[in-house]
Amino acid sequence: MTVNSNTLHRPFNKRRLKKNLGLTVSFIILVIGAIAMLIPFLWMLSTSLKDLSDTFVYPPKFFGKTIVWENYANVNERLNFLGMFGNTVFVTVMVLVGQIITSTMAGFAFSYLNFRGREHIFRLYLLAIMIPFHVLLVPTFVLLRDMRMLNSLWALILPCVVSPFGAFLMRQAYMSIPRALGEAAKIDGCSPWKIYTAIFLPLSVPTMTTLAIFTFVATWNDFLRPLIFLSSNKQMTLTLGIYAMQGNYSTDWGVLMATVTLSLLPVVIVFLSVQDLFVEGVAISGMKS
Amino acid sequence: MKRVTARILSISLALVIALGCFSFAAAEEQINLTFWGWEASALEAQSIQNGITAFEAANPNIHVDYMTVPNSEYHTKLKTAMASDSAPDVFYLDAAYTRDFANNGLLYDLTDVIGDYVDMNDLINSSIEKVSIAGADGQNHIYGMDICCVGPVIFYNKDLFQAAGVEPIPTTVEDRWTWDEFVENMKKLTIVENGKTTQYGTCNWEETSSLYVMEYMLRLNNAKWFNDDFTQAVGVTSEASKQVFEMIKALRTEYGVAPDPTAAGMETGNSPTQMFLSGKVASIAIGSYALQEISRSGINYGAGLFPVLQEGNNDFIASADMKAIWSGTKNLDAALKLLTYMSSEDFGTPIYKTGLWMPSRLSMYSEDKLPLWFDRTVYPEGWENMMDMFKTSSGKWFDKIWNTKQIFDAVDEEKEAYFYIDQDLDTTLTNIQNRINENLAK
Amino acid sequence: MTNIRNKDWFWAVLFLLPSIVGLAVFTLYPLISSAYISLTDWGLLGDMNFVGFDNYIHAFKDATALTVFSNTILFTVVTVPVLLALPLLLAMALNRKMPMTRFFRATYFLPTISSMVAMSLIWQWMYNRDFGLVNYILSFAGIQGPNWLTSPFYALVAIMIVSVWKSLGYNMMLFLAGLQAIPRVYYEAADLDGCTGLRRLFRITLPLLRPTTLFITVMSIINSLQVFDQVMVITGGGPSRSSSVLVHYIYQCAFQYYEMGYGCALGWVLAIFIFLLTMTQFALNKEEYSIE
After folding, report:
1. Fold exhibited by the domain A75-285
2. In B, residues 82-121, which contact A (CB 8 Å cutoff)?
3. Is C154 contained in some domain?
4. Domain range spanning residue C95?
5. Distances (CA, A) of C28 to A131, A136, A159, A161, C3
6. Number of domains composing chain C
7. What is the ipTM of this complex?
8. Of A41, B154, B301, B339, whose CB has the highest number of CB atoms within 10 Å?
9. Which residue of C19, C106, C222 is in closest CB contact with A272?
10. pLDDT of B94-121, one tens digit each?
């Protein structure tokens, strides 16, 4: 029957064939790409379970003679992993909370409130987004030094609590909330603070989540700031810790890769559990900028 | 009602003031010292921790705040802390940075006081050179104290040597191999299968981010890179230093007996022992500190001296970290106590035992003190022959420069250009000389 | 009326206070301060002497600065086109009904969310000449892999590969969003006109994707100009500065050599570059809208 219909409706089926071909080619491309994306992660896992003698072999093998789980046990001994993990969590949470509060408040002011100079001030925020951190490196460092905050986790938190990008993102979200909603509440006698907490905040949870995810990933993975602002091994964050570990007199690739694996886990878990929100967030950030 | 409140208020105020005075009085007795180190190994960390505990027990009024900073960032962080007035009172200092820091007035000049704590006559020669700097007044000024030294040796894998039928590397000055003998033996130890080298004779001669082996080789070949007071680089372009660069490069490019540094996963220069520990390389030129790691690796190892390059040149260099006191310290007496405690035999002995350090005190090499640390299960056969070298060693050139970081980076850059980008050797050496001078002039 | 204004002003101040204070202290003040420091010879420990534009003039004479400038530009010129072409291709492949879409999406995104330092360490190990995975895989194609990290040419290439690998997924996701925003009617009309394949790509997809493409281009350029983590971890700028880039040099000047003034000046060169780029994007985007 299919043969028959093929000959009968040639134009249609040619298209279907083409469509199938396109699908197959696409699929193959995607699979090859996915392998390229995953190999480094698999190699990391594989190395994290090898001992030194299995590490330096040619041809490289994905599994060594023995599986060395001790590498994971050694992580904390070699690196104070738990301490660094705690530091990183603390910094990330503080920055996250800070940014959400300041960004939603500023976004609310720029969208709901009418005040003279609103657009001018907002334009300054947009300009601030463009400033690369590298031009501020030295003065920020000097400032933190004078505030006696170098080598303290606050050096990573305070300068990051305000994000002009976050304010921008939240403002865009609030602009789409119908003004009537706020006006109605106002007539009911609600103060702007009440309108902010009772109406705008709950309505902007998706955008807040987007902002939170971005901030989480950026803060968790930040390297330059910890590198410059922190000194002590006790204060280190994970990225700085694994960088410093590589700089020790001896590098054991097995333990190093075990550390890297553990440091990645939280981000990967968060990502996999909010994957859709994340993807949406990227799309939004792309569209709106 | 009001009156009662006022009375309560004034009473509590008085209480607060009294308490404040009390705690102030207590604080006067309690001294807090901060101490920084970089911890080259877990074992050293343990020793430092033990040392601090013992020190605090002996000095109950002194509390030591110990902080570790990663090795790679250590000296920049230390300088920063000093610039922000929050520096440690006592700290580890790489000898290469002594002059760099002293020139900026960051180190406390110990010249007049150290004699009360340490018998300076007991220091080995290289240590005296290490802790002191010639001042503008022509006098030597002492800026720190040490307890250890590290010298360049060649460790080798005995099993691989036996399999290839190569004699152990000599440990006495008289028996040292010539460079040609060394190269021949390394060739025997190099195995090539199907065009792929599966075992290398030797490694770490090109060193990355370090000038340790390089300086020793230069000196063995009678090269000289600096004028007498180390204010200028001269003679870098000499024939003698050219030879050394060529000899080292030829090990990899011409004879194929040394691996490319990336092959060992040591591209950052921080883990040169990795390759040796993997059992794929028969020998490694490195500081004696590597003994600690090698002795625990399960490899059947030996150690010997560098080859002789110029007849009669028995030079040996030694250096290592030392401890110093910040010029801005507010607790000089306590800081001195800690510094000298951390530079005492008691502190050093457990670490000598592991091979990480060699003693920098002549008395430690004496018959009665040797058994305290010379552990036969760690120190390989023939090490005792090399001990005189440590005792009579001289200090490093690169411990006497300033703007250290800039100079190290510049020399590294040029070295790499010659080794890996085939930059012409004359250009390389001319650049090195100019760039060192540029930085010494700053 | 004025009363309401005043009231709104009160609330505006209240709501903006935290972020304005933050921006003033940690952005505006450092910005001004940085401009000033860049005109001095400050070295952290010594005095601060005003030297005019010496640091900026030095930046164009300093051989090392020229090397890092050209490395940075080379890096940008090579990676940005790749970071446009590959993600677009993948996005188009993914923009249809097929099995495992979620898996693909997650996989391509994984490098993006992972820390660059961690990824760099893994790649550093994979680039190992003798025992590394990269050269092993190349050997199947009969290619003798180079000494990735000690060759002046391949060191920068190695950094480029890692960077592309890392940001591929992010750009792909942006393209995918852009593609999905194109109304289906355009394609249906094209189908009726018999316009297919490449012509469809060039006549419909690419023109309609222009805003997305523009955005991705500018973002990618800005990110490429600021590349740092992977350089610091994988090669440290070596061998012999062949993979050193602008931000790496800024870091060294300011925090390892204590040439604070010079470090700030180099920072400003970067900032001005980025500012001009962003302005160009705005201008182009405006043009776009006025055409429509």
Report:
1. MetI-like fold (1.10.3720)
2. 83-84, 86
3. yes
4. 52-284
5. 10, 9, 12, 15, 32
6. 1
7. 0.88
8. B339
9. C106
10. 999 999 999 889 999 999 999 888 899 9
